[in-house]
Amino acid sequence: MTTFLFRFGRPILIGVLLLLISGTASASTFNDWVGTINGFLAKVIFFDVMPGAASVPFIVGWLIVGAVFLTLRFGFINIRMMGHALRIIRGDYQAPDAKGEVTPFQALTTALSATVGLGNIAGVAIAVSIGGPGATFWMIVAGFFGMTSKFTEVTLAQMYREFRPDGRVMGGAMEYLSKGFAEKGMTGLGKVLAALFAIFAIGASLGGGNAFQLSQAMGAVQNEVSFFNQYPIVFGLIMALAVGIVIIGGIRRIAHTAEAIVPLMVFIYLAACIWIIGSHAADIPAALVKIVREAFSPVAVAGGMVGVLVQGFKRAAFSSEAGIGSAAIAHSAAMVKYPVRQGFVALYEPFIDTIVICTMTALVIILTGVYNAPEYSQLVADSKGAALTAKAFGSVISWFPVILSVAVVLFAYSTMISWSYYGERCWTYLFGERFSLLYRIIFVGFIVLASVVSAGNILDFSDLLLLSMAFPNFFALYLLQGKVAKALKEYLARLRNGELDKEVGRA
C-alpha cells in the first residue's frame, strides 16, 4: 500500500493537477470533478454513524470524542496553562539555545492567519443560517475542547520535527505519524497514514485554504465592485499575483507577512463587531437565551439537537482546525527548547479564533436577523456566507460593507499564504524538495481557477478534505498521548521548582 502511494500516487496527482492548471479542463468540468470527489469522500470517511433523522458523520464524532478525551486526559490544560502561555508569547521564556526558523509568536500568527479567516466570517454565517443560533453554542464548546487537541498535535510536531540539510524544518502530522508509529513497531501503518494525511492536506490546501477563500472573498467584493461580476477571473489573477509574491519566499516571508497582517485585521474586524453588538445592547440577553435554548431545542433547518451540534462542530473544525493537524506544520518551525512550550502557545488559537471571533460574528448575524431573513435566502442557498455577513454589518453601518470587503480579502489572503506552506510541506514530504516550486505554481493556478467555480461545490470540497485530515491525525494523538503526558509532567515540575526561570536568567 505504501509503495503504491509513493510510486503511483505521484504521477497521478501531478497529472490531474497539471491538467486543471493548463486550462484544458473547463470550469464546468472542474465542477463535475469536484462533485465526484465529494461523493467519494462522503461515502468512505463521512458515513453516517447515526442513520435516521439525526445525521452524524463519522469524522465529526471522531473529532468530538478525541477532543473530550484529551481534555480529560491532560486535566483541563486548556484552562490551567493559559497564563503561562501568554508569558511564552511575550518572550519571557525564549531560551537562547532554542532551534527553529521563526519565533513562537510568529508561528502563532502564521497558524492564526490560516485559521482566522473566512471560516470566522463566511463559515459562521453559513452555520447559523443552516443550524440556527444554537449552532453558536456548539461552536464554543468545540473551540473549548479543541484547545487541547491543538496543544497535543503541536507538542508532537515539535517532538518529531526534522531539520533538513538546507536548514528548513519538516514537521507536522506526517512526521509524527511515520516516526511515532515506527517507535511502536508499526512502521508500515505509520507511513500509510502519513501519506494519507499529506494527500488530504494537499487537497485541503487547494480547497479550503485556497479556492474557498478566493470564492468567498470574491463574493463579498462583487457586492461593492460590479466590475468583478462581469470579469471574476480578473479578481482571481490579482489575488494569484499577490499570493505568489509572498509564498515564493517560504516560511520566513510568510511569517513576517502574517505577523503584520493578522493583528491589524483582527482589531478592525472585532472593533466593528463590538460596535454592532453594542448598538443592539438591549437585545443581547434575548440573543444569548436563544443561543442556549436552540442548542438543545432547535427550530432550524438542520432539525434536531444532533443536527445543530454537527453544524457547530463542523464549522468550528473548519475555523480553528483543532484536531486536523494543519497548524502543527507551522508550529513545528518555532524556536522553542521544550516541545510542550509551543503546545501551550497553540492553546490560544482555538480560543482567539473560535471562542472569541466566531462568537462575535455569530452575535452580529443573530442580532441583525439576517440569518433567517427571506430577502437573503438566496445567499444562504448559494453558500455566500461572507456576503451574508456583509449584509449584517451593512444593516447597522451603511458604509462598513466596503471596509468589510477589504477585511475579507485580507482574511482570505492571509489564510491562503499560510495554507500554501502547509500544502507545500506535505507535497515535499511525498515528492521531495526539488518539486516544491511545482506545488507553488499549482497553488497559484488554483486561485485563478477558483474565480470561475461554483461556491457550493467548493464549500463541500473544503469541508470534506479538511475534516478528512482528522482521520489519520487523531490516530497519532491517541497513540502518542502518553509521550505528551510525560513531557508535560516533566515541564510542569521544572516550572514549579524555578528551573525554567533560571534558564532564561529570570531567577
Please, could you describe this protein's structure?
There is one protein chain. By secondary structure, the protein is mostly helical. It has a single domain (43-424, 453-503), classed as Amino acid/polyamine transporter I. It is 77% helix and 1% strand. It has helices at residues 2-21, 27-44, 58-73, 77-80, 82-90, 104-115, 118-131, 134-160, 173-183, 187-222, 227-230, 232-247, 250-279, 284-296, 305-320, 327-331, 339-346, 348-368, 377-381, 385-394, 400-431, 436-450, 455-468, 470-496, 499-503, and strands at residues 162-163, 169-170. Strand 1 (162-163) and strand 2 (169-170) form a beta hairpin. Helix 9 packs antiparallel against helix 10 and helix 20 runs antiparallel to helix 21. The longest helix is centred in the middle third of the chain and has 36 residues, at 187-222. The protein is globular and about 60 Å long. The model is unreliable at 1-26 (pLDDT under 50).
Write the layout of secondary structure elements.
Elements: H1 2-21, H2 27-44, H3 58-73, H4 77-80, H5 82-90, H6 104-115, H7 118-131, H8 134-160, E1 162-163, E2 169-170, H9 173-183, H10 187-222, H11 227-230, H12 232-247, H13 250-279, H14 284-296, H15 305-320, H16 327-331, H17 339-346, H18 348-368, H19 377-381, H20 385-394, H21 400-431, H22 436-450, H23 455-468, H24 470-496, H25 499-503
Antiparallel strand pairs: 1-2
Helix pairs in contact: 1-22, 2-23, 3-8, 3-24, 5-17, 6-13, 6-21, 7-15, 7-18, 7-20, 8-9, 8-14, 8-15, 8-17, 8-18, 8-24, 9-10, 9-24, 10-20, 10-21, 10-22, 10-23, 10-24, 12-21, 12-22, 13-18, 13-21, 18-20, 20-21, 21-22
